[in-house]
């Protein structure tokens, strides 16, 4: 039987399309197996295992990703993770502990944040109240504390014997280190009160980062169907100038979430990192097709070009459950640890990445 004209070429075309489809499916399968793709997913900065487990438990019981992030960060606030989250840590120049936090809904792009929060232990809870009980994004200082009390949060002393002792030792050491410059008396050898110098010094001072005080929990949670939320909580930089706010409660700096692209959360020297919006940049890179690890590395590299020895790291995850992390190699900091929990494991898993 004679075949119609062009039948052979049509057949060849169909075979070729099937081969291409097979290769694409195989490649996708391989990519998923290599990239840890799995939803639901919880990922957070540093080895804060109990926080990871708390967030995962919420997801497993049918809670929302916002509930998961709030409960995960709140666990760290209660446990005072590394002394850098929650009450009783990182006293400022006046000896007071203040808190910063932020939470973001990747579906609606709604955000709630608080900074320089006093007297209230549950900072991430207040951040969520800002998102759900006001039309604002960020409340700060004493007014944020009054808002929290009006919303039913309990006022408590955030000072502990440990924070008092830390502050006392700092005073005995002539207030070293501190974050003052271009003032007198010389802040490198003396406590204040300080006055401005007539002439500005251009010499850079060494930034004294507390790498053992990991400074923030940043958390990302994905549901099974791809909804995402992100959040942060911290008591900020130890011995900071009162009123200082770092990157943690700043949208796009401390964290960012968009259910159409992914989410990221940062940790480290917030005064430097917040200038580059690394979390926002990483999410936009993933939106453009970048692998999460590559997106994290690019965000870190962007900062590194201007501040070669800054202390910082970032975690990233996209809508398929692929995740990654990156950090900047600096004195005393060559690896970054973070936690992951998904359906492939029975418990939170500690991961690490070499800094670039």
From TrEMBL:
Q: Which residues bind substrate?
A: 244-247, 267-270
Q: Name one GO cellular component term.
A: lysosome
> According to UniProt, where does the site described as Cleavage lie?
215-216
The organism's superkingdom is given as Eukaryota
Q: Which residues form the active site?
A: 216 (nucleophile)
InterPro entries noted in UniProt: Ntn_hydrolases_N, Peptidase_T2
Per the record, the GO terms for biological process are:
proteolysis
GO molecular function ontology, one term from the record? N4-(beta-N-acetylglucosaminyl)-L-asparaginase activity
Q: Which residues form the signal peptide?
A: none
Annotated catalysed reactions: N(4)-(beta-N-acetyl-D-glucosaminyl)-L-asparagine + H2O = N-acetyl-beta-D-glucosaminylamine + L-aspartate + H(+)
EC number per UniProt: 3.5.1.26
Keywords of this entry: Autocatalytic cleavage, Hydrolase, Protease
Report the sequence similarity comment from the record. Belongs to the Ntn-hydrolase family.
Function, in words: Cleaves the GlcNAc-Asn bond which joins oligosaccharides to the peptide of asparagine-linked glycoproteins.
Protein name (database record): N(4)-(Beta-N-acetylglucosaminyl)-L-asparaginase
Q: Which organism is it from?
A: Mastacembelus armatus (zig-zag eel)
């Amino acid at each position: 039987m004679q075949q119609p004209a062009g039948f052979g070429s049509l057949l060849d075309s169909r075979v070729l399309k099937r081969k291409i489809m097979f290769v694409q499916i195989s490649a996708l399968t391989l990519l998923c197996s290599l990239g840890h793709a799995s939803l639901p997913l919880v990922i957070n900065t540093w080895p804060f295992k109990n926080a990871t487990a708390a967030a995962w438990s919420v997801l497993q019981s049918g809670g929302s990703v916002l509930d998961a992030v709030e409960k995960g960060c709140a666990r760290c606030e209660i446990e005072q993770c590394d002394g850098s989250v929650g009450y009783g840590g990182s006293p400022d120049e006046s000896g007071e502990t203040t808190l910063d936090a932020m939470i973001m809904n990747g579906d609606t792009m709604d955000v709630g944040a608080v900074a320089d929060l006093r007297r209230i232990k549950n900072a991430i809870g207040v951040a969520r109240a800002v998102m759900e009980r006001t039309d604002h994004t960020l409340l700060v200082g004493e007014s944020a504390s009054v808002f929290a009390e009006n919303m039913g949060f309990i006022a408590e002393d955030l000072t502990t014997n440990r924070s008092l002792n830390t502050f006392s030792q700092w005073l005995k050491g002539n207030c070293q280190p501190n974050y003052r410059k271009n003032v007198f008396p010389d802040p490198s050898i003396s406590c204040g009160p300080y006055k401005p110098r007539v002439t500005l010094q251009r010499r850079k001072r060494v930034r004294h980062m507390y790498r053992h005080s990991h400074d923030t929990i940043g958390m990302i949670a994905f549901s099974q169907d791809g909804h995402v939320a992100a959040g942060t909580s911290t008591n900020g930089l130890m011995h900071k100038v009162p009123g200082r706010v770092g990157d943690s409660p700043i949208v796009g700096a401390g964290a960012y979430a968009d259910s159409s692209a992914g989410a990221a959360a940062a940790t480290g020297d917030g005064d430097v990192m917040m200038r580059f919006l690394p979390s926002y940049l990483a999410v936009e890179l993933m939106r453009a097709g970048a692998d999460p690890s590559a997106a994290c590395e690019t965000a870190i590299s962007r900062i590194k070009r201007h501040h070669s020895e800054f202390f910082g790291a970032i975690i990233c995850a996209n809508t398929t459950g692929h995740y990654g992390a990156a950090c900047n190699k600096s004195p005393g900091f060559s690896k970054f640890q973070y936690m992951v929990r998904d359906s492939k494991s029975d418990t939170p898993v500690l991961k690490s990445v070499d800094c670039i």
